[in-house]
Amino acid sequence: MAPPDFFGLRFVQFSEFASWTDVAGWASNLFEATAPKDGEFQDVVKRIKALPSESARAMAALEFVQSQVRYFSVALGESSHRPTLPDEVLRRRYGDCKDKSLLLVTLLHELGIKSRPVLLQIGRHGGLEKTLPSPQFFDHAIVEATIGGKTYFLDSTRLGQHGELDRAGQAHGGVQVLVVARETDSVSRVPADTGDIVGDEIIERATLAKFGEEGQLDVRRVWRGLGAEQLRVVLERATHEQVTRFVRDALERRYPGATLAGEPAVQNDTLKNELSISAHYKVPKLATEAEASWVVGYAVDNMQNVLIASQSASRTTPLRIPGFPYHGKYSFEMSFPEQVSISIDPREHTVANKYFNATVTEYFRGRNARKTVELKTLQPSVEPADYPSYAEDLRSLNKAIGNAFAVNKAMFNNDAAKADITHHLQQQHEETIKKTTEIIDGGKLSGSDLANGYCLRGHARANLDRVDEALQDVNTAVRLAPSSGNILACRASVYFRAGQFDKSVTDYSNAIALGGGADGLDISFRWRGVARVYAGHMQEAIEDFAKASELGDREARIYSDMWLIATYGRLGKPAPDDMVKRAGAEAQGEWPRAGLAMLAGLMSPDDMLKSLEKKVGDERQMALAEAYFYTGLRNLALGDTKQAQASFQKTRDIGVIDYIEQDCAAFELDRLKKLGATTSAKPTTNGTVAH
To answer: Whose CA is closest to 367, among 319, 333, 404, 399?
Structure first.
């Protein structure tokens, strides 16, 4: 074979082994041992055999070797490569990695559990496939065990591993190994996938009663698996003062002057292999003033340096991913003062490639904002040819994560105690109209920028029911930028509010052909579907909602699915089974997931409304406005037009004038008024009806 090429350098190799099979056979001879027939070894076997399951017995054997046999490296004479026999290791109560591994394998065999020794080089994730076979590449020994058809890699030299085997940490994820067995013919790899277990999670909840004053911040950091085991050992050796100082200083960089209020709480769940530290802080400058806004910063501290970029835009060598393997989550929830009221639907940004998967979710309703980030690394390094696309994905991820929530002072409701949500939204739109008019009249904008100005003002006017003025604005915008999907989608939304559904469908169709509006292609399909519902084209609407659901992220898809199920109901058809199943999987989440479950017949309207009880202020009003509307659609599907009418009227009474549900409720009430009578119909098996 050709000499190996490491980082552009070639090396000459020599080996007395012709294949990895020869190396594995050599090691197999070294690891041969007969289980002691009596003494302490058999006492341990007898005690462990009494445990109720194979996984519990395997974990007990691992814990025994880890805790009862001290790790001590012996590398002199024959001990440099041949493990000490199990009875001698038990007698002297110490051993190195190969001694402890042979003891564990022997124990597991006596317990009827298939296991084999494994050789590895700590931290080596690749390269052995490019070398001549040799035992010299290995500096550590662990154990492979098969339990219930699943393979586990157990390190008998580690500490802090307790509880359930499936939740034990893996210190060697992604590392190349050689299984010591005569049938082995190649190197393999320890799985790096952590599954659904989030190893490192930070949950931060901040509250600010008044801008310019002290805020409160609750922080909980949770380690699971390997992280919990490592920290457990550290905490056992740390003093109370050291732990307190670590927690106290954790936020100093982000919020100078932040102080720890009370004692940090440490929870250690060894069964689930989970360890958490919770703390409450007082923050003197939680929000900082920046020109026309107040800003609250956050930082994904548990993801710092997990992914890195290169100083050079091009590479000739692989870029190491420091955080491989890693699966972490961060969430920051902010409760602003009551004068803040913002409406941003939940949205999700996903970046996925062969090196990492990341999802960023953002939510801002009323005065409550939330940002959630979940990241999993998939490979130990980035190949040079893939670096440009990796770097672009990393930039996209960092942009989506951001570092702060900012609220514009012009959007404040400074008389929050007196003004309802409708009045507040009206004030916001009046302010938008005022500012965009000044900009348009200033004469400094042209082309698409000017078109966007007219679009923004037209949208605000439409929200205030000044439809004729809004149509003038959006028609001007289309004349300025006739080939802009964003501008066409803008006019489509105004046509919809004006009740000109066919024109709305046409504009959305043209916007879709151009790639969709500013909110994305999936949203354009959804809104075209809604326009088609009220234009009377139900089957075409179903096709649009299905396409929107297919294209949308997890958050946006929920609303598309709600419209899809409701439209099936209008046609007297049951929703597809896969959609009902998806609704069931989301049923335990907060709004709008409860709304989807309700429309699918998996939750009663009353239970759905109860799920909103924890929400307060404008956030609650916004959620209720939607909830009542979709309850109305559910009542229509059940043939109860009287209850449907009452639900639609509740949506109108709340008056969230930004929401499409506000307009749709008006259209539904107008239609029901024209029908002039309640009808009954026979429900289908999932609650939809034929009219």
So the answer is: 333
